Amino acid sequence: MRTAYQYRLRPTKQQAVKLDRWLEMLCAQYNYLLADRFNWWEQNRSPVNACPLVCHLPELRDNPDYYSQKKTLPQLKKTHPWYSDIYSQVLQDVVKRVKVTFDRFLKGDSSGKRSGKPRFKARNRYRTFTYPQMKEGCLQGNLINLPMFGKVKVILHRPIPEGFKIKTASVTKKADGYYLTLSLEDKTVPEIKPNFNPDKITGIDVGLKEFLITSEGETVAIPQHYRKAQKRLRVIQKRVSRRKKGSNRRQKAVKQLGKQHKKVADKRKDFHFKTANWLLSKYDVVAHEDLNTKGLARTRLAKSVLDAGWSSFLSILANKAENAGLLVVPVSAHNTSQDCSNCGEKVPKKLHIRWHDCPNCGCSLDRDHNAAINIKNRAVGQSVLKAQRLLSNSRIGCEAHTILASS
User: Fold this and answer.
1) DSSP characters for 57-102?
2) Same domain? 247 vs 133
3) Per-residue pLDDT tens over the stretch 350-382
4) What is the pLDDT of residues 61-113, one digit of tens each?
5) Residue 3: phi, psi to the nearest 5?
6) In this structure, is the dihedral angle defined by the CA atoms of residues 86, 94, 81 and 123, taken in order, positive or negative?
7) Model-level pTM?
8) What 8-state DSSP symbol labels residue 253?
9) Helix (H, G, I), strand (E, B) or coil at 197
10) Does 167 score more than 70 pLDDT?
């Protein structure tokens, strides 16, 4: 199992200058390698038996792939000696990043979805570099030893658990400073609970009136972090727009705006983690709707949907449940608000109608509460199917058998 811990870095002034210099050089190399791939693709993407409208003879060379571009790095250090200051694996990770970006553009990801055309990075848009491998014992007290960079002070606000091994380290520049992200490996597989208490299965319905409501009727108020910060953001944004482009005063205002946006994002993330912990401390199985958040973010409710951050919350909830040996079950969102949770009959209602009144059985309750109960009912059957899939894993097969028996 892999998990990530993020810590605040406290570099000295000289180290901060060196970090910025590394990021600028890596950004230039990223843009060069991406341009190399684009040049070959533009000249050679037509088939042999076809000719584009603008016909020219391309340069006869092989397609620049991951391995051929990695072979150019030793020559890069000869022609540009200042690149010798950067750790070799950090430079190789730039090549890998270009490969992943370009392949996602041409072929798509694992689900077949293609991304847009990759863009060249500006200096202030390239913020992270990664060490793909870290030696054992690289973290000594409150110092992290980064190869070919040196020891940097780290604010260890929480210790690394025993048995966890540091695999990779990433340094990221954010609006308020530098951060270190450690990717940790734990070889112990979290055990799925052998049986689930029927009283500890719940369904949640996320919304914009309340952040979520459980099938038991418990609600969590929506905080609206962005909307509450809009007044302050408007003042700072106006300050940025009134200052001359390229001036030092404008750069200071942009930095201040970035800090304010980060503050809003941190508040939202903290709220998501606390809400996920509260749910998993009370319930063994949490069911939710399988929402198309990207589609909802294109509607007129986009600002409210993105401010709530449903996608981020559900991702955090699933990861926390996996670490705790619990289950998070996504179910179909079709007609969860329209179907009656008591009799199952469909009761059509428009979005502005917030109360569910069933003419068939007389069930009367809040629309979102009704949807949460429907989500829980759908998840009861799906949890059995999920347990069947767990049977294929020999390490937790016995636990899955017990789940099936209890269901």
Assistant:
1) PPP------HHHHHTTHHHHHHHSGGGGGS-HHHHHHHHHHHHHHH
2) no
3) 888 889 999 888 888 999 999 999 999 888 866
4) 678 899 999 999 999 999 999 999 999 999 999 999 999 999 999 888 777 77
5) -140, 165
6) negative
7) 0.83
8) H
9) coil
10) yes
Tokens (6 digits) for 122: 């500006």
| DSSP secondary structure letters along 377-392 | HHHHHHHHHHHHHHTT
Do 73 and 146 have their domain in common? yes
369: exposed, middle or buried (Cβ count in 10 Å: 0-12, 13-18, 19+): buried
Query: CB neighbours of 144 closer than 8 A, spacing ≥ 6?
Result: 9, 138, 151, 152, 154, 169, 180
Work out the mean pLDDT of the chain and round it to a whole number. Answer: 87
pLDDT at 45 over 80: no
Q: Tell me what the mean pLDDT of segment 23-48 comes to.
A: 87
CA atoms of 395 and 388, how far apart (whole Å): 14
Query: What pLDDT score was predicted for residue 6?
Result: 95
Boundaries of domain holding 251: 198-406
Residue with tokens 């030793």, as numbered in its chain = 74
Provide the CB-side half-sphere exposure for 272 (13 A, CA): 22
Q: 242: which 2 tokens?
A: 């009134």
Q: Band the pLDDT of 263: cuts 50, 70, 90.
A: very high
Instruction: Indicate the residue among 185, 212, 227 that finishes a domain.
Output: 185
What is the total count of domains within the chain? 2
pLDDT computed for residue 49 by the predictor: 60
Contacts of 304 (CB under 8 A, 6+ apart): 208, 224, 227
Which residue, 317, 246, 314, is CA-closest to 280? 317
8 A C-beta contact, residue 173 and residue 23:
yes
Can you give the C-alpha Rg of the chain in angstroms? 26
Q: Secondary structure of the chain: what % helix, strand, coil (to 5)?
A: 45, 20, 35
Element (H, E) at 53: none
Q: What is the dihedral of CA 34, 36, 37, 43, to 10 degrees?
A: 140
Question: Could you tell me if 211 and 172 lie in one domain?
Answer: no
Contact of 192 with 403, CB cutoff 8 Å: yes
| Cβ contact 144:180 at 8 Å | yes
In a domain, 330, yes or no: yes
Cα–Cα distance, 85 to 21 (Å, whole number):
10
- Final residue of a domain: which of 185, 218, 234? 185
Asked if residue 131 is part of any domain, the answer here is yes
pLDDT, tens digit, 9 for 90 and up, residues 4-15: 999 999 999 999
159 and 34 in a common domain = yes
pLDDT one-digit tens code per residue, 299-311: 999 999 999 999 9
